[in-house]
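A protein record in our archive is deliberately plain, so that people and models can read it alike. The tokens are whole numbers drawn from a learned vocabulary of local backbone shapes. For reference, a complete record is included directly beneath this paragraph.
>
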Amino acid sequence: MAQPRTPSGQVVSILPMGPRLQEARTTALLKSEQLEVVRVVLLAGQDMREHRSPGEVTVHCLEGRIEFKTSEGMHLMGAGDFIHLRRMEPHALRAVEDASALVTMALLPHA
């Protein structure tokens, strides 16, 4: 399925969803040649199993609380917290509370 593409220069809100979070879904905000940006929504208890990304990744917790596991250990992230991952670093997430996060992934050029 094709990812939606936000046109260059278009403003997109990433404000916390508050009470609307319960009905929200993970949404791709942008996928370009070099960058992918996704708003990940996890309700309390939901998780993303351990995985790796081929490019560098940043995760900015927008609301709620997330347990973020890396090779360095477990990090409890709350609204406003930010983490950077090297490429291919294994990581996993679990929502302690209903949460959303802005995930930015650097895409590697096609060979």
Observations:
- The two ends are 22 Å apart (CA to CA).
- DSSP finds no helices and nine strands in the chain.
- Strands lie at 27-31, 35-42, 47-51, 57-63, 65-70, 73-78, 82-85, 91-95, 99-106.
- The first strand starts at residue 27 and ends at 31.
